[in-house]
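Continuing the batch. This is chain 6 of the set; chains 1 through 5 are on the previous pages. Same settings as before, nothing changed between runs. Recording input and output for traceability.
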Amino acid sequence: MLFKNAFLKISAGILSAFLLGLFGTAGYYSSNLPDHITTENGTVEFKAYPDLKTDYIAADRAAVSLMGTIPVKSVAVDRKEPPVLIAGGSPFGIKLLMEGVMVTDMGDVDGISCPAEDAGIELGDVITHADNVPLTSNKDLQRVISESCGNSVKLRISRDGQELTAAVSPIYSEKDEKWRSGMWVRDSIAGIGTLTFIDKATGRFSGLGHPICDSDTGELVPLHSGEAVPVKITETKKGQPGSPGELHGQFTGLPMYGTLSGNSGCGVFGTLSDTGEERLGTSAEYKLGYRQDIALGEAYILSTVSGTEPKMYSAVIEEVDYNSRNASKNMIIRITDEELINSSGGIVQGMSGSPIIQNDRLVGAVTHVFVNDPTKGYGVFAESMYENLVKN
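Output for chain 6:
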């Protein structure tokens, strides 16, 4: 009898632990699934999570369960034909002119004080107007400061999506023989990225996969205007554990590919010029892959690590977070292509935006490299990039 009671207790404990594990797994899946998905043919299947089953409970809503028994959540479903995208992989130069000027540093004027700091200005603030004069460059701001002759200058500031005002009283610098505000600002940024795709229907394009942020403040750069220009990769600095690699290139001076109109959490967006469409619009075409169609396993990236022409390299998608809160970190990929690993170490800076192809669909873009393992990095959903392209 004692043996029987002990056996029953052990069995009950094992069953309880098993059930707790199942419900814990269901909770994990629930937090990682989106509330809304788009599907091409009405089929709802989360390919990275094969244990999940779905059944329609309404014309536009599906119930998701673990192994068909334990409820996980319900998701809204929208049926839509995916757009046809021209794959990128080509490097391009980025020239951005900010919407205003961004404060990147502050310091005392001649050791006296810092007027900008005294006025409540913070690093990362974007100053859009000075005494009601719109600012498009550092020269614009310095001219207003110089002409103030020490009188208070009213600044209009954008901070975390809010518009603020501040009054700065410049100090005359005996050293520089100029009126100074004690702040350093940036008005433009240039760099190299990779084109992700062109929307065949509109001629608009998307690239980079992550936002362009100021190197000093980490703040997203507000875009006033910008250009995507041809660039030639001249050198690839190979990535090593603890030391990210980098593509080095030079602007070719050829006519620009197009104009940039948006800088968001999912990359930069713009419209191709006629010549840009002629030079970039001849690559392979793929349908957009919706996020739930992304599976763990074999994939490919298109990228350029030398010259101007992209090549296809093998990779593996190791993790997918369908409901990622970070706009540019939706999946983890690992480079398996020996040629790319030998030449670059894997993923390097400048490859951001390289399209990810899986099952003949364009499903994402490379965004970040793992510093301690350059063969691995993050990717963003192509669906998210396309949604932002449509909005911008």
